[in-house]
Write a structure and sequence with these properties.
8% strand, 13 helices, disordered C terminus, alpha+beta, single chain
Length: 530
């Protein structure tokens, strides 16, 4: 008994389910086969009763009626000699042949009933041969003398025929009654069988649900309750090992994880305290670095303005009075100071994206693009640029950043045009699920595929400052603006007739970090295209 208990306790959920399903299917299959046999028996007996026994009995009655019609017609014709009495006799002969053939078909395989039918047929043949045919062959108009002569013999022969018919009918009645009794007994058996099937199915259903409850539902509920207790913070709560072998194994694994989690929590708590201290130090350091970068770039404006002013003053006052090398050095100083001032301004604008400019509201991009084209009107007129655009949507965005985005993209498309071609620029917008995809296409000098990612890095230039002016920060600014609004920006590497820049913007950007509390400079215009 103990070995059997240990063996059953090692059964997994799958094994319990397989055994239970096999037993249930075996019982149901047996009941189904038995039920099908009973139904077949019921149908067979009912078919025999309806299509054989009852029709055979009714046909036997009709055969008796046909023979009686013959006897009546022969007797009337023999007594009167009137030919009209021969009509029922002849009709009786026809009906006799029909009903005899029908009974032969219905009683096929029933030897006793066929023997009764042969007795009736032979007795009728004797009566017809000795009495009916001789009288029917007598001349019409006068009574047949054979009627009186053979009256006693005819009566005796027809009485024998009546007894044969009565015996046949009695046998058919008995067989029909037996068929009715068999049908009733089979129907009773059928009803009991299907009641038993219903009871067995109900019992199997109860057993299945009870087995599932005890073997799966309750162990899983217990496991879930223990797991929730651990999840709610009671890490010392043990996981009970209940249910089939696989569920007990799962409970053991979860309990092992719980014990390991308890060990890890102690280590994690200690690490968290160290990380909190490091995070606080890092946050202070980042704030100081941000403040330092802002102050450094902001405070550099004043000395740079002085350097630029004095070098320009030297250029105006002493230009042409010194040698050519001195004039060249002065030009270098003026240009360097101006470039440094532009670079610092661009850095300030780049640092403000997401920190200063973050006033999110509904923005009509058509109107923003129109203002951008107006601010670039001088460059457009000088280069003869042709700029077209599709209808642009309204989005929830920062209007200042949208202006900076369009100004950098359109400005770059104008600046990097081919010397022998007027710039042709087209802006398109297509809805893609929750995003809008914008594309700026131009016929300029293009961007080689190997530089498709490099151009979005700050201060990365593909051309010298003498060929194209700029600080190399424009596309980096565009990338920062687009990503701040929940989108992406890429160069189309397959476009060869210029440059095609594609970017996406969400209808509503993700929640942005609040503005910095650092001091703000006064310059807020967009970075010049670069």
């Amino acid at each position: 008994m103990r070995s059997r208990a240990r063996e059953s306790s090692s059964w997994t959920t799958r094994r319990w389910l397989r055994v239970g399903a096999a037993v249930a299917l075996t019982v149901l299959t047996f009941l189904a086969v038995t039920g099908a046999w009973v139904l077949q028996q019921t149908e067979s007996i009912s078919d025999n009763l309806v299509n054989v026994k009852s029709p055979a009995l009714s046909t036997a009655f009709r055969l008796e009626s046909a023979l009686l019609n013959q006897e009546t017609g022969i007797r009337g014709y023999g007594l009167t000699g009137t030919p009209d009495f021969l009509a029922p006799y002849r009709q009786g002969l026809t009906d006799q042949a029909t009903y005899t053939t029908r009974l032969t078909e219905l009683l096929h395989g029933d030897a006793a009933a066929l023997k009764d039918l042969r007795t009736v047929r032979n007795t009728a043949e004797v009566w017809q041969q000795t009495i009916a045919r001789p009288i029917a062959d007598a001349p019409a108009g006068t009574p047949s003398p054979l009627t009186a002569e053979r009256a006693a013999a005819g009566k005796k022969t027809f009485d024998a025929l009546r007894r044969a018919l009565s015996g046949q009918q009695q046998r058919l009645r008995t067989e029909r009654a037996q068929a009715v009794d068999d049908l009733n007994a089979t129907m009773v058996l059928r009803n009991w069988l299907f009641t038993t099937i219903a009871v067995v199915i109900a019992a199997l259903t109860v057993l299945i649900f009870e087995g599932l409850r005890r073997g799966i539902t309750e162990p899983l509920a217990r496991l879930g309750a223990d797991a929730r207790a651990v999840a709610d913070g009671d890490f010392d709560h043990p996981i009970a090992l209940v249910g089939p072998a696989d569920l007990r194994l799962l409970s053991g694994e979860i309990d092992f994880m719980r014990r390991r989690l308890v060990r890890e929590l102690a280590f994690t708590e200690e690490a968290r305290l160290r990380l909190d201290a490091q995070a606080a130090d890092l946050q202070r350091s980042n704030a100081e670095l941000e403040q330092f970068a802002y102050v450094a770039s902001h405070d550099l404006q004043e000395p740079l303005r002085k350097v630029s002013s004095f070098t320009q003053l030297l250029q105006r006052r002493y230009g042409g009075q010194l040698d050519a090398r001195a004039d060249q050095y002065i030009d270098y100083a003026v240009d360097g100071a101006n470039r440094m001032q532009t670079l610092i301004n661009d850095l300030l604008d780049f640092s403000r994206v997401g920190r200063v400019h973050h006033e999110l509201r509904s923005v009509d991009l058509d109107a923003v693009l129109t203002r951008t084209l107006s601010s670039l009107s001088v460059s457009i007129e000088e280069t003869g640029a042709s700029i077209t655009h599709d209808p642009l949507p309204s989005l929830v965005a920062d209007p200042t950043q949208m202006g900076m985005l369009w100004q950098n993209l359109i400005g770059n498309a104008i600046k990097f045009h081919r010397p022998d071609h007027a710039p042709e620029i087209h802006v398109s917008a297509v809805r893609e699920d929750a995003l809008w995809r914008f594309t700026v296409t131009d016929n300029g000098i293009g961007i080689a595929p190997e530089y498709a990612e490099k151009v979005f890095v700050i201060f990365q230039r593909l051309h010298t400052k003498d060929a194209y002016k700029g600080s190399g920060i424009g596309l980096a600014m565009c990338k920062k603006i687009v990503e701040f609004h929940g989108g992406t920006i890429v160069i189309d590497p397959d476009f060869r007739d210029g440059a095609r820049i594609s970017f996406t913007l969400a209808s509503e950007p993700p929640k942005a970090i609040g503005p910095s509390t650092m001091p703000q400079a006064t310059r807020t215009e967009a970075v010049p295209a670069s």
